[in-house]
TrEMBL record:
It comes from the Bacteria. SUPFAM superfamilies: AraD/HMP-PK domain-like. Its EC number is 4.1.2.17. It comes from Candidatus Anaerobiospirillum pullistercoris. InterPro entries: Aldolase_class_II_sugar_metab, Aldolase_II/adducin_N, Aldolase_II/adducin_N_sf. Coiled coil: none annotated. The keyword Lyase applies. GO terms for molecular function: L-fuculose-phosphate aldolase activity; transition metal ion binding. Pathway: Carbohydrate degradation. This is L-fuculose-phosphate aldolase. Keywords: Arabinose catabolism, Carbohydrate metabolism, Fucose metabolism, Lyase, Metal-binding. One of its GO terms (biological process) is fucose metabolic process. The lineage of its organism: Bacteria, Pseudomonadati, Pseudomonadota, Gammaproteobacteria, Aeromonadales. The keyword Lyase applies.
Amino acid sequence: MLMEKAREELVKYGKKLVTTNLTKGTGGNLSVFDRANGTVAITPSGIDFFEISPEDIVILDLDGKVVEGNRVPSSEWEMHLMQYRTRNDIDAVIHAHTTYATVFAVLNWELPPSHYMIAVAGPNVRCAKYATYGTHELAVNATEAMKDRRAVILANHGILSGAQDLLNAFNIIEEIEYCCQIHLWAKAVGEPVILPPEELSLMAEKFKTYGQRKSKQ
């Protein structure tokens, strides 16, 4: 069975999305890219995260052809593959329907740097133009808006993150969801103070050695 470790991690983090209240039901999808072999392990379409087994994970090539697996891959497979085709710093992608980031999504707002933890994803988190789920247009919009960033808000939809592994991609989802929550609560009271670009640059450097989580060997 190809990409056995990746399959196990996808099952683990899919369940974790639900148990940490970062998604509901079957909303969202996850993938891992094996850069050496050019294959992608991705969660199947429409199966509850607690029902997915490693055998249900689908293996694709970068053209979207099924290499191994009997399930239908996530409908968002092209949005994942386009990140791997265009980025050399992303080997894991998570899409989720988190509550607060999705509030930003339905407002079509980008997330500004009101909290320094946004720097795990970039100096801000852009909102990609709306497109129907599972379409080539959505994949293009998400990829364009996530350029030079590690997260993007998908208009009227949810959030997407990418990192070197699932641990860091999951951490980005968690932190950006927190930043969205704090920003919205702050706006309910007053106007959030936005951090200057030089502080975001400093945070990005600090996170290279401190803020970025390391995978356990």
